[in-house]
Amino acid sequence: xxxxxxxxxxxxxxxxxxxxxxxxxxxxxxxxxxxxxxxxxxxxxxxxxxxxxxxxxxxxxxxxxxxxxxxxxx
Length: 74
Prior knowledge:
Layout: H1 2-22, H2 29-33, H3 47-68
Helix pairs in contact: 1-3
C-alpha cells in the first residue's frame, strides 16, 4: 500500500506542477502587489476556470495523499 501511495504522490505532484505552469502568467501574486496596474478584478471563464478547478482538485488530492502515506508503513 505504501508503494501505491508513493507512486500516486509522484503522479499527483507532476500533474499539479503542469496545471500550475499552464495557468496565465499575469494572475499571480506579483500583480496583487502592483505589478500589472489593473484596478479591476477579472472573472475566470472557460478553459481558465476549468484549469483553476483542476489545479485545486489535484492540490487537495496531493495533500490528502501526503497525510495518508505515514499511516501505511512499508
